[in-house]
Amino acid sequence: MALRFFTPSTTVVLAEPLQTRLRAWQELPAPSLGQAHYQVRYGVLHLHTEGLDPQQHRIKQLAAVGVSHGSIHPDDAFWIEPGSHDPEAWLAWLEFVGKAPLASFQLPFVRAFLEPALRLNLGLEPRFCWLDLAVLLPELFREAGEPGHDLEGWLDYFSLDHGDRRDVMGETLLQARLLQRLLAAARRRGVDSPAALQELARAHRWLHGAS
């Protein structure tokens, strides 16, 4: 029996048109995490917040970019500026990402803001395949040195222009370019699917004592 992709809640009541769209999203097939990278569409996320505490501050801007078959396409991008309670904006975000594996740099911070927002606005806790670039890049590019590279360090390592770090979409595109390099290196190492990347991340956390 397939695992349920989401946990529904009865505490959020949506207008009927939004309920219909949410049901359509729920009925999308879960991704096959055993597929090769170049058969998979990944979503790359980045967000800007009012502060650093998810309990006291909200998401100001959220951007997402698709990486399909290893490529970034200009029209496969999404941006929202959600209010404190904006179920339609969050539903549009869900429809954009579908049920793709999701990647970001310093993923625990992103999830700490994102998951409560989905619970509050849609009453859902989707069980995405989450991939932390900050964990996976040091595993696949050990020659880069210390695993504590910050984002700027990885951009320098790959000679990527930092651009305007205040631009949420620009930073999301930079992280998408990091994912491209990660996928190419993973394929060379035989880490050839989202499931294999998850396993590599689990091994990293076990070796380094991270949660």
Question: What do you see in this structure?
Answer:
The chain has helices spanning 16-26, 87-97, 107-122, 133-140, 151-157, 168-189, 194-208; strands spanning 41-49, 59-68, 71-80, 102-104, 130-132. Strand 2 (59-68) and strand 3 (71-80) form a beta hairpin. The chain starts with 15 loop residues before the first helix and ends with a helix. It is α/β, with parallel strands linked by helices. A five-stranded mixed beta sheet has the order 3-2-1-4-5, with helices on both faces.
Strand segment tally:
5
Approximate strand percentage:
15-25%
Q: Helix/strand/pairing class, anyone?
A: alpha/beta
The helix content is 40-55%
> Kindly, what is the distance between the CA atoms of the first and last residues, rounded to a whole number of angstroms?
28 Å
Overall pLDDT metric? 88
Main beta-sheet annotation = 5 strands, mixed
Q: Given the C-alpha coordinates, what overall shape results?
A: globular
Q: Which sequence of SSEs, written as H and E, runs from N to C?
A: HEEEHEHEHHHH
How many helical stretches? 7
The Rg value, from CA coordinates, equals 17 Å
Q: Which strand order spans the largest sheet, edge to edge or round the barrel?
A: 3-2-1-4-5
The unreliable regions are none
Tell me the quaternary state: single chain
